[in-house]
Input
Amino acid sequence: MADKVEQQIPSDNVDKRSEEPIASDVQPTAEAEEMVAEETFQLTIKLPGGKGSDIKIIASPREAIHDIKQSVMESPETCAHSCFYLALNGKRLNDFAELGEIEGMTTETELQLVEDTYTERDVRLHINRLRDLLGGPYKANPSAVGIDSGISYLTAVTGEIDEEIVPESERKVEDLFSKDPIPEHAFTDADLNASSKLSEFVPPTFQRLAPQCLKSLTLSGWNPVPHARRLKGDLLYLTVSTLENENFNITASTQGFFVNNSNNAKFDPSRKSGGKKMQAHSLIKLLQQVSGQFATNFTALQDFITRHHMLEVLPVNTYFPAHPWAVQAPEHVFDPARPAEPLLNFGSDAVESLRDWNDELQSHRELPKTNLQERVLRERLVNKVQSEFTEAAVRGAVAVVNGSVVPLNPLEPEDAHMYVYNNIFFSKGNDGRGTFEALGADEAAHVATGKDLEGVKIFNSVDAAGLYTLGSVIVDYKGVRVVAQSIVPGIFRRQDENSIVYGSVDNGAQISADPKFHETIGNEIAKSLHLSEHALLDDSKQETKLYTSQETKGLLGADGRRYLLDLYRLNPVDIEFQEKECVEKDGTPAYPHKMTLLRPELMGLYWEHRFREWVKAKTEEIKKERQLANGGEEKKPSEEKSESEEEPKTEESEEAKEEKKEEEEEDIKIDVSEFKLTFNPDVFTSAKLGGDAETIKEQEQAVRDASKFLNEEIIPSLVLDFASYAISPLDGDALTKAMHRRGINMRYLGKVAELVALSEDKRIEHIQQLATQEMIVRCCKRILRKYLADCSLEETSACVSHFLNCLFGREVNAKPKPELPEGKTRNDYAWAMLSPNMLESELKQQVLRRFRYKLADDYFSSIKPLPTLREFCLRVGIQLEARDYRFKAYTEEERAAIAAEESAKARIKDQQQRQSSRSKRGNKNKNKEEHTTRARRSTTFIAEDIQNVMPTVKQATGRSVFAEETFEAGKMSLAQGHRQLGLELLLESLTLHEQTYGFLHPETSKCYATLAMIYHHGEDREAALDLQRKAVIAAERTNGVDHPETIHHYLNLGLFEHAAGRTKLALRYLKHALFYWDLVYGPGHPDSATADNNAGVMLQSLRDYPTSTKFFERACATQENILGKDHVLTATGYHVLAKAYTFLGDFNKALNVERTAFGVFEKKLGAEDPRTKESDMWLKELTSNALLSAQRAREQAAQSAVRPSGATAAVVPNGNAQQASQQPGEMPIEDVLQYINGDSSRTTPRKGKKKSQNKRH
Output
């Protein structure tokens, strides 16, 4: 639920659905965990080197020996070892043997670590491991597709922790008006009204560079090893430059590493004298022996790495990592070994880099899945190879677009070029062969590639035996869409006509239907997707029956496997939209293409809707049959019911319920197989349909009804969900996912915006803004894509910066000048002729054309610059320098200051010109240099701001059905009150997620977060914190550091830390989350009130009442603006604010605010409601205090009438809680505070919020 702010705020504020099941104790699971703990192995690994050198490892019986070896290599104490084997009683253990299967293995076995002989591959792995360690957790990689790939800021935000976790039983009730100074915290002296600065996108405490241990470590120029030395055991030669400025030539041999006598001029591979100091089995140990600074700094490096969470250091290898859109310009460091990385990774002949992707994918899919262990292994391997395929495909696509790959068909037009690179087939996502000419040419082809990938996902999720899909990835880079696919064996060795045995290659001229294909599709695919078997006619009028559309092709590969290709027409046409919008009318241009298909989610929803209707009708039919069978006696009571409706309702309510239950149980006997509803994907297309006219008419009507269902039911229900806050998206991506989950295509974004605008409901005003922003971003992406496609690589940054200036910088410069190469004019480039006014009119036209929505004339002024810039950069793949860009015009004062500065510069220049000619020349050059570096920008963006243009990726990621089903079953069990079963299922699901998806995956992140919330409610603070930290890191590294899901995880982490007694740390997390919230959306989102309330409660516990009151005021302002002053939720906010003012000692404000709250409660809830009564009690307390304060003020004013006016100010509370408590006229504050606190100093403010949150849901 990425688009919903869930369980953000104190434990009282959680969604009711997740609140109820979390009431019972956690003990049952503790017992279950103990049972598991008894089965684990507590291994002792004896290290080479004598007494006392051993490590302890806890492992499960399922873990293999190579997993234990990996743990040894990753441990700071033993990271020097990489080439070794483990032995039990002197006998070498097989690396792939599982612990539970090894003979003689007990739960407390002692294993020996034995140093092994090296091979050339082992040496390369050892050197790579050392290079990874020396680079630290954030090693810059210029060869990666993006900057700061999969980065996490959790350690930087956490900083030094100076608080302990305190169990609630041991906590002291703090003196709320203690005279001790308020502890310093994240919001001390912070300006809450200031907007987030993009220059602070990377936390200032973020430490990127690890301690330096060596100047350089590189492969020697004496490589490769000569033949004679190979016979001596030499494998590789290295050159190391230490921090002491010493150079060492090192030999990697089969027995380890040693310093040799070679230098750059002379080859002498003999071992250098110096005894044991000059040799070691591990390169790390050798370097520690020869360099004192390496030994010292390597210890500091290990400390630096271990300060980070394990998940921050692990590579993201089962999901395409996230890349931030705003980055600090990376510092490029000298590393002579970097160009040799391919050699170190893949060996001299690079055989390890060449893989048969298709065979790997299909072989993994063919693995057995008869039991849980087999299913998990199969899904893990499929996910891993899919992720590696994606990484290779992205690199290949970039190479294709940059012109580094020679096409297979160079004589054909460029749009029709095809490529093979790294055993992956690449083609452009446009209509190079005229296939989609009638449907919209390139526009339709572009959509078809996305739909094809969607089809691959669907087929993979059905997981039908005997049918295979290709590995598929879509890469959009520099305005070009590239489709990457694994290669079907034999496809280049024979004609398409021979290998295509299902569907049609020539648009229906000839149609094939292999019986085996047809049967396999009918058995599983057609049932799952509700596809109807339908007849098609080819050019010779011969009838052929298919389940899929005629464009879908069944191919028989040379490996004997049956592949399905071109799956873009799995779902039927959205005929209602096509008939109304794909034609020009009333000044609105026609929709750009006719590839307007319904989404698979909608087909599922519509099928379920019709199925429920059918069951209801069938139930009624059975009831009538029973009534007739009973002689029709029950008809009269039903007739009487209409005459006197109220009597039967009251008298028979309980009996009626029981009877209904019994009837429902009997009605389960309805034969579900009688319900028939299938969809023909070829209706309303150019395909020639066969069969009788009646059947065709029925099939057409089914598709038309589904299309109407989308317009008449689903879209209005989405708007209702927005209004009830069932979903509350924070950005365009969350809005897109919310629409897609309900089966709504993005072409309906304009309709959603219109419906929201028609409702005139302030509660969903933010949806109107988001929808408009999303339409603008999507159209901008298409316009820029057109310009970028014609740009050379070196023009890209100038093109992007000029486009951004036209979009966002018109107030700073209404006529921005593009940065052009020397000797070129604007007329040489299409993008250079773009102006803000041209872009504005183009955007209006594109939004009208693509979304059927008319933008307001002043829409440019209503754009939120930073949120829109963020969305745009993420969609196009732009990485900007994180700095403060100016979007508003200079004020008169700023212009005056600039003029004064310019005149001062002119005076300095005049003085310099009076100097001697030689000096003058030098100074002029220097001054010119300074002027260019400090020159004030004439535009918002310049080309140097564009740090990178990277590819955006769509992939057919696999889903672990079993892991997700277990997860849902666990949540359902909790909802039904079965806590023990629910928790066990969720823990089992977490294990499945980790094994299938890996630790770093969005799905695993969600699982961590759900379990963390459950442990939090069970008051197992440490377990909740540990899981929530993992959720944060996994979300940061796979979704993005400023993704809404990541922000929500940070807010919850703050909540959990506060509950554990570490409030200052909690506030750091909240500040970080609110900073990104402001960048992602800006102020005024409905859910931001909840986060503000949270911060206020935490600050109250630190006695910072002035700052906490500001947060409560901001929360009230948000609620009042959105819900209105008369809403119960707003009144609850006022009630909390009144308490905050009371803490401040400002009784007059507290009284006024509480009076407003009481008025709303009394009007909306009635005098007997607990909230109204509580508010009434507050009013009485506050009124008496206000009267006392006023009386004291009058007395003091009378006594000191001659004093200056400033002296009387002390009488009125000024926000300082300590001063307020010292005023003699305000002593009854203690009574008020006692009422606020009850038994605890923190319960009442949360209570107010709990009610407000529950009310919202």
Notes: The mean pLDDT is 82. Residues 693-723 form the longest helix (31 residues). The two ends are 15 Å apart (CA to CA).
